[in-house]
Amino acid sequence: MMCRRKSTYVTAILIPLAVGGLSALLSRNGMAAYQTLEKPPLSPPGVVFPIVWSILYILMGISSAMIWCSESQEKSQALKLYAAQLAVNFFWSIFFFAFGWRLFAFFWLLLLLVLTAKMVKSFYQIDKKAAYLQIPYLLWLLFAAYLNFGVWMLNR
Length: 156
Hints:
This protein has helices at residues 5-35, 48-68, 75-98, 102-126, 128-132, 135-154. By secondary structure, it is mainly alpha-helical.
């Protein structure tokens, strides 16, 4: 199967952007309530989140396209991990914002971190550059876990 590079990359970038956009749309009502909550130190202003997530979703798409285009026998397993973490990512905003399940969302985020770490390891075995593109995502998820837990603690 030939990898049509441009269309593959465009599609691969649009998938996580669409997943993130739909998740944000479904949880937008809870985002207004979030503004009224106490937040832990280092919490960025709300405008930062859609910018950072857009960049992370673009990097995610590029990385997944690199794996898709590889000739590796392990790419199917790597892409399954990618899809799993993307599905878990989708639901986090809904749990945290729309439902207000802050502690549950924190544990869900820990699941996302584990899946993402496994995905990065799997990507690394196929294409190191694809794995490296996910390092900002892993770091952001760690920061998000800190914020999530802090919001829960300060607003119980």
